[in-house]
Description:
Order of helices and strands: EHEEHEHEEHEEHEEHEHEHHEHH
Helix content: 25-40%
Radius of gyration: 19 Å
Number of helices: 11
Strand content: 15-25%
Shape: globular
Amino acid sequence: MTKHNLLVFGLGYSGSAIASLACARGIAVIATCRGAAGTPCIPGVRAIAFDAAADAIRRATLIVSTAGPGEAGDPVLREFGAEIAAAPHLRWAGYMSTIGVYGDRGGAWVDEDTPVAPGSTRSQRRVEAEQAWAALGARMRVDLFRTGGIYGPGRSALDAIRAGRARRIVRPGHTFSRIHRDDIAAAIVAAALQEWSPGARVLHLADDEPAENAAVVSEAAALLGAPLPPLVDYAGAMAAMNPLGRSFWAESRKVASAKTQAALGLRWRYPTYREGLRAIVAEERRDGAHEE
């Protein structure tokens, strides 16, 4: 296999999983980290400060960004767009976006060919960031990963139940698409290691069963042997939500990812929230976490 150098912008929840898996596959990984420059946030991964990334860009064959846009646009391209466009060895770039770019589809299905229709300023910024990354496709492969609700160890309905803040919000027919953190890492590393040709493509990181909030919370409670959290009707829940939560619940769509899985030659390890939650509980028990 060709020796690759991967630069990960953002060593957060998803970025850490991507970096760890890439390292395990024999890829040299450098990642921007909020901690002190040079601190090994993950064994085998060299962590650097964001503003020190120019040299890593020049060496990189692969780049993936997990950084979301702000009012001033995409922070990575704003700071390093010229360097990335001119990077001599760069053959592939991945950008983690969101399924929010589709806006509200009234519960209808969308796939990788569905046109975007952002319904909020936040989602419009995502579309603009996607367009900026896609413009690099004239000389390299660019993959735009539109990602569902991310969950995994330490970030799931299981944690909400343990913390006593879980609710079963009832809004019949309103579903969310989710994706386990480890399936994100597997898909992104698979895409990075494919044969490349210049151009941009859309890939969906969303599992096979969009589900209602109440169903996921009920499954988590059953796995923990915990009482079912209270049922809360949607109107009552809205009154207590912040603006971000309201916008999240205002949109409904189901996200298909069969084309993505076929293009990457994989199947999700956790095709629904059931497998994903069970795996988290099993991992916690192996590690001795949350023992009574």
